[in-house]
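Field: sequence (string)
Field: structure_tokens (string)

Example rows 1 and 2, in order.
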Amino acid sequence: MSKHKLFLLRHGEGAWNKENRFCSWVDQKLSENGVVEAQECGRLLKENGYKFDHVFTSILSRSIQTAWLVLEAMGQEWVPVTKSWRLNERHYGSLIGLNRAEMAQKHGEEQVKLWRRSYAITPPPIEESHPYFAEIYNDRRYTTCDVPKEKLPRTESLKEVLDRLLPYWNDVIVPEIKSGQTILISAHGNSCRALLKHLEGISDTDIVNVTLPTGIPVLLELDENLHPVKPRELLGDQAKIQAAIKKVEDQGKANVGNASIGK
């Protein structure tokens, strides 16, 4: 029997999503379309009568901006928002900034799919000579977080995303859910996928096929032990959702080029 509702939300389309580039820990604002996605998400949640007690985000602007826009559209701007790097997008290492379609042309679509979707495969680590290394690691959001800068990841598999996310989930978010609060986690494709894997017991193989489009809220109904009592539900127009999922899945194909699609 359902006792708790948890909402997961992959942020609206970001500027680099639109350019089909690996964004990862580089900070990006939402694109114009991403702003609309977040606003439409908030209106949908309001129309369905949902109310939040607490919102959790990463420390990346696209995640935070999405949460703000959702709450504004719901008329719930007063709801507290808490941020943590542990909800950040997966660290894509040396792939950061590169175009996915161009990487598929160079390395093959299967390799790019493994980098993007597999559970335990880690992309090549970012080096200090990388054009975005200083921008990431000299950013004050990381020099003041709960882990020394030298221990922050230089690359991550989805498994490693889950490993750094779980302590925050168990210690901070779970107690609030169990106290009866309705929680929204406004995060990223891979941090949300990692949580889904944990909550739904998805196998290492099957998680490859779990795709979340931008700006679509995912409803999880959980029992008292936070086990799902029914399949996850992506809220909204189902035909549009399936089309959005296909766009994300097509990102790593060599013929996509710089098409305006999101991840």
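Row 2 begins here:
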Amino acid sequence: MGVVVIGAVFVDIKGYPNELYIPAGRNAGRVTQVHGGVSRNVAEDIANVELRPTFVSVVDQSGISDDVINKLNRHKVNTQYIRKTEDGLGTWLAVFDNEGDVVASISKRPDLDEIGTILDEQGDEIIKNADSVVCEIDMKADIMKKIFALAEKYHKKVYALVSNMSIAVERRDLIKRTDCFVCNLQEAGIFFSDDYEGKTPEEMCDILKVKIQSAELNEMIITMGSQGAVYASSDGESGYIPAQKVSVIDTTGCGDSFFAGVVIGLTYGKSLGEACAIGTRLASSVIATKENVCPRFLPSEFGLDIDVEE
């Protein structure tokens, strides 16, 4: 069943200025609408490395949701565990400046309760056959507990990412049970109750080595935007991966692609540092485009020897 990804689907509505962006002003520009959501993006990113992930999620009854499922199917994501509910589709509205960075956003989260029902009814078959499990750590606590119980029952590694750190920080007990936790610099500051603004990658690497020991985490990666990413594990592995230099068009989805690359690497036998390098390459390919997900790659391009079922 490949990597199993569990989480939400969003529709991303994005606005780009034609001229110099003026905060609080009326900016003429263009507006695009694309399929989004952290987990949905990760599932498609994994599929774009010619792997075959399974996506467990919910959508609504609209034609947009049909489009979401059809696109995932075209990319060879297993969508048999996606269900339609009344309020199953989220919306993210964002405005970008001339550098491709988000300057304002509003999101409407979907109702994910049906995911708990899916896990009750089909969780054993889903997790038993998984290569690994990916989840948004800030989903409802009862859903998260079901995921971890099933993963531990079948001895599957769990990789956690964040869409809302203010919620995730309350799940420290669950984060300790993950095999690798990934977040950005600002989120790391919230998680560790500290301010890391202005820290160099070298400084953050030293800080992270100490922090994961005191917090009893297995592995953690902190992304630092244009400065790259730092990583550390409880067994002493640590390091820094610089970002690749590319022309920035749109940063949406680059963190999701980085996480997908990390999951791919760790699931299929790479070290933590090697997994970060895969994530960095996928992220750079997204930053240079207007897409939320990476383009097509072959597993062999990342040194992965994986038999892919057609």
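free_text_note (row 2): DSSP finds ten helices and 13 strands in the chain.
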